[in-house]
Amino acid sequence: MKKWSVLLTFFLIGSVFLVACGQSGSGGGEGSSQDLSLATGSTGGTYYPLGGAIANVWNKHVEGVNVTAQATGASVENLALLARGETDLAMVVNMNADDAYNGRADFKDQKVTNFGAIGVIYPEVMQAVVLKDSGIKSIEDLKGKRVAVGPQGSGTINSTRHILEAYGLTFDDIKPFYDAFGDAADKLKDGQVDAIFGLLGLPAGNIEEITTSKEVRVLEVDDKAVKKLQEKYPFYQPLTIEGGTYKGQDEDVQTVTLKAVMYAHNDLSEDLVYNLTKTMYEKKDEIASANKTGQQIDLEKALEGVTTPIHPGAKKYFEEKGIPLPE
Fold first, then answer.
1. DSSP string spanning 105-156?
2. Helices in 201-283 by DSSP H: which ranges?
3. Does residue 4 sit within a domain?
4. Strand pairing of 34-39 and 237-241?
5. Which residues face 254 on adjacent strands?
6. How far apart are CA 203 and CA 205, in angstroms?
7. Residue at which a domain ends, from 203, 226, 257
8. In the Cβ-directed half-sphere of 81, how many Cα atoms lie within 13 Å?
């Protein structure tokens, strides 16, 4: 019996030693790799493929990290993941980040403040799309229609709600579908829904895919609606989708835009986030070679629309580059 006690003691000591070695290795020492998760969005949207492209460039150029892009429900879910410490990095619409930080909307009475901005990735363009032969010519025409409003936990669903509100409509006035954008685009092409909303990069690949067999119409967000939006939600800015962006969309169409921003958990070190920030902005061409939305990563516009605190590591990089910090 005594022999087994001695062996058990040695086993436990050895286990503690191995655990200690593993913990010291995860801290980023020489020869070690720190595993990081990047929360993105649905596989049919812009976040997931772009996030994968950014993660690959980080893995190539930032020593000692292994970043994995994870498919999620996008902005709102990503902020919840940050709050619970279940992701290290997240792509989020600036509006949702501001809501979380101030405890509004989806985050009423449950503020999320344990994150800092790395910087803007690209403008998020709200695109409301129907088939050209549908007879739907305006957002008012969506009353009673089958509308894909975005997946639960996404920036799209909130933005869709805001735009409908600007036209005097609510989800009760339509038949909402809560599909990820890729699924929604397939349903539009197949006639299973009448309209789809997406907060996406421009042009959106899934919309381009629809136009290989169908012509589309992008619905306008007119000046009156933009004014109503800005009065209540100042994050929105007008943006023109130029004619010819999509097959069948021959005329310029006004819509609105927000900003897609990369955020980091505050537990990530200043040095690490400095290197992530530097790489994302200085290797943008390499990111763009894998995903064309990466062309819109712009250091000069890195802090436009950022209303929450900037991570110290990112702040250090922007100060070095002379980028004015928000007041």
1. GGGTT----SEEEEEEEEEEEEEEEEEGGG---SGGGGTTSEEE---TTSHH
2. 205-210, 223-232, 270-282
3. no
4. unpaired
5. 240
6. 6
7. 257
8. 25
Rounded to 10 degrees, the C-alpha dihedral 42/243/306/292 comes to: 50
Same domain? For 230 and 208 the reply is: yes
Which domain covers residue 39, as residue numbers? 32-121+259-321
The pLDDT tens digits for 139-194 are 999 999 999 999 887 888 989 999 999 999 999 999 999 998 889 999 999 999 99
Beta strands 34-39; 216-218: pairing state:
unpaired
Domain total in the chain: 2
Tell me: do 104 and 159 sit in the same domain: no
208 and 129 together in one domain: yes
Q: Count CB atoms within 10 A of the CB of residue 174.
A: 19
Tens of pLDDT, residues 196-243: 999 888 888 899 999 999 999 999 999 999 999 989 887 888 999 999
Q: How many residues belong to the chain?
A: 327
pLDDT band at 31 (very low <50, low <70, confident <90, very high): low
> How far is the C-alpha of 322 from the C-alpha of 315, rounded, in Å?
10
- Give the separation between CA 90 and CA 254, rounded to whole angstroms: 29
End position of a domain, from candidates 236, 257, 278 = 257
Count Cβ atoms below 10 Å from residue 292 Cβ, excluding itself.
Answer: 15
Pairing mode of beta strands 175-177, 89-93: unpaired
Amino acid at 7: L
Q: pLDDT digit string (tens) for 44-84?
A: 788 999 999 999 999 999 999 999 999 998 899 999 999 99
- pLDDT per position as a tens digit, 253-287: 999 999 999 999 999 999 999 999 999 999 999 99
